[in-house]
Amino acid sequence: MTKIAIIVGSIRKDSSNLKLAKALEKLGGGRFSAVHVRIDDLPLFNQDLEGNVPAAVTRLKNEIEGADGVLFVTPEYNRSIPGVLKNAIDWASRPYGKNSFAGKPGAICGTSPGAIGTAVAQAHLRSVTAGFLDMAMMAQPELYLTFKDGLIDSDGNVSSPDTAKFLTGFVDRFLNHVGGAAKAKAA
Ligand code: FNR
C-alpha cells in the first residue's frame, strides 16, 4: 500500500493542523498508510552533531526515505513556516549529498484562523521543497483552510460536508500525484 509520511508543523496537543492531518488520513479511506513523523524530540540543528547524529534524526530520515510521498500540514508563524518544521527539514536534508527528501513527491497544505489560511507559509515551504530539496511538489489543488471552532475534531471528523468534499478531492489528487511519480520512476 502507498505509504505517506505526514509532517505536521505544529507540535502542540490541540493543533488544528494535526486535526487537518487526521481528517485527510480519514478521508483517504484506507487508500494509503500514514506514518506520522515525529519532530518534537529533535535537537536544534547543529552541524557539530552531524558526525554522530542523534537517534531521533536517524528515525526521521528513515521514515521519510521509506515513504512513497510526503505530506506537509503546517501552520503559518509570522508569515512563514514554524521553526520546529524548518529544524526537521534541515536535519532530514543532511548530511550533504544524503538529502532524504530528494526525488520524493510531496504536497503542502495547512490551516490557521486567518483569512488566507497559511498561504504565505506554504509559498515559503514550496520554495524550500521544490526549489531546493529536489522534491516533486503537487501544484494543484491548493489547500488553504481557515480554521473555525468545531470544523474538525481531534479524531479527524469534519463537520462541514463541503469542506470534507474539498479535502477528499485534495487527497485524491495527491494520491494520483504520488502514483504518477512511482510509475515514472519504474519506467
Ligand atoms: C501565529 N499565528 C499566525 N496565523 C497566521 O495565519 N499567520 C501568521 O503569520 C501567524 N503567526 C503566528 C506566529 C506565532 C508565533 C504563533 C504562535 C501563531 C496563529 C496560528 O495560525 C494559530 O496559532 C494556529 O492555531 C497554529 O496552528 P496549530 O498549532 O493550531 O496547528
TrEMBL record:
Name of the protein: NADPH-dependent FMN reductase family protein
Domain NADPH-dependent FMN reductase-like: residue ranges: 2-146
GO molecular function per UniProt: FMN binding; oxidoreductase activity
Organism: Micavibrio aeruginosavorus (strain ARL-13)
Pfam families xrefs: FMN_red
Organism taxonomic ancestry: Bacteria, Pseudomonadati, Bdellovibrionota, Bdellovibrionia, Bdellovibrionales
SUPFAM superfamilies documented for this protein: Flavoproteins (SSF52218)
A single GO cellular-component term on record: cytosol
